[in-house]
Every structure is written in C-alpha cells, then in structure tokens.
Amino acid sequence: MAKQDTHSFDGATTTADGMMYNGFLCKPIIDKCEGCDRVRPFEDQNYCYSFPQPASKWAMGRCNFATHMKTETKAQGKVNPLKASKRASKGK
What we know:
Blueprint: E1 13-14, E2 19-21, E3 24-26, E4 39-42, E5 45-48, H1 54-58, H2 81-90
Antiparallel strand pairs: 1-2, 2-3, 4-5
C-alpha cells in the first residue's frame, strides 16, 4: 500500500501571478528548494506547502522550513566534571 500524500493543493487555482490556495498567492519554488520534503507539484510547477513565497524565505540566508539542509552545530569543548560541580555549587 502506497503512502498517501496528505498535503495536496485541493481547491487551488492557477493565476497569472502563481497559484491561489486558501486565499494565499503562492509562488513557484526556487532552485534552493529542490529536494525539500515540503515541495508539492501542482499542474506544471512545484510549490512549497509550508510557505507561499519561497524566495523570500531564502533572501536572508537559509530557509527555516528546509528539510533537505542539515544544520551545522559547533561541538562544545569537554567540560571538567569537577569544575562544573564547583561552579554549580557556587551558583554561577
């Protein structure tokens, strides 16, 4: 049994500016969105199911909805347990 797509654009209409869905004008995805799990096809274009204007999400850096991008975290240095307990007991 195939997994059903619960996020489809039922009731959406195509306009000259993009796709109208639930009162929002949705723009097609940009190249940075390729591979994201939130991308859904509608007619001959792909659209983001979570945000109507994907280009604006990428304007200031990385899109916070992107499922295909891994976040980079800096590894914390080792903490000396003896020093940590002393700091905790002093209330720092």
